[in-house]
Design brief:
Blueprint: H1 2-14, H2 17-44, H3 50-69, H4 73-86, H5 97-109
Helix pairs in contact: 2-5
Length: 114
């Protein structure tokens, strides 16, 4: 027991107090960022995948186009293919844990005037 206490005292005397304070602050900063990255991910993450959202949108569009313009399924598929070449759907960045951490590091380390 005494040897363990002596070892702790010896290790404590080896580390400069300023270094110990700096390492503690860095550890707390990283823990803070990880906590809020998890919170951002939890709040901003979507329940559906982009593929499911796209399928629902296409289904609704198909019904609307069929009712309004009375087009066949083949005509609709042709329209969708041409429209897909113009705009790509479902490629937005999702709020993953790493994206959230990157956002928080950028936010917390940005220096500017208020």
């Amino acid at each position: 027991m005494d040897e363990l206490v002596l070892l702790k005292i010896h290790l404590k005397s080896l580390m400069h107090p300023l270094l110990r304070k700096t390492l503690l602050r860095i550890a707390l900063y990283i823990a803070y960022v990880m906590l809020f990255a998890w919170i951002f991910t939890f709040i901003e993450k979507r329940d559906d995948s982009p593929h499911n959202i796209m399928e629902r949108m296409l289904s609704g569009l198909r019904m609307d186009m069929n009712l309004k313009y009375n087009i066949t399924d083949n005509e609709f598929e042709s329209f969708v293919r041409r429209a897909a070449t113009v705009a790509e759907t479902g490629n937005e960045l999702d709020w993953t844990f790493l994206n959230s951490m990157g956002f928080l590091f950028a936010t917390l380390t940005t220096v500017g005037k208020a």
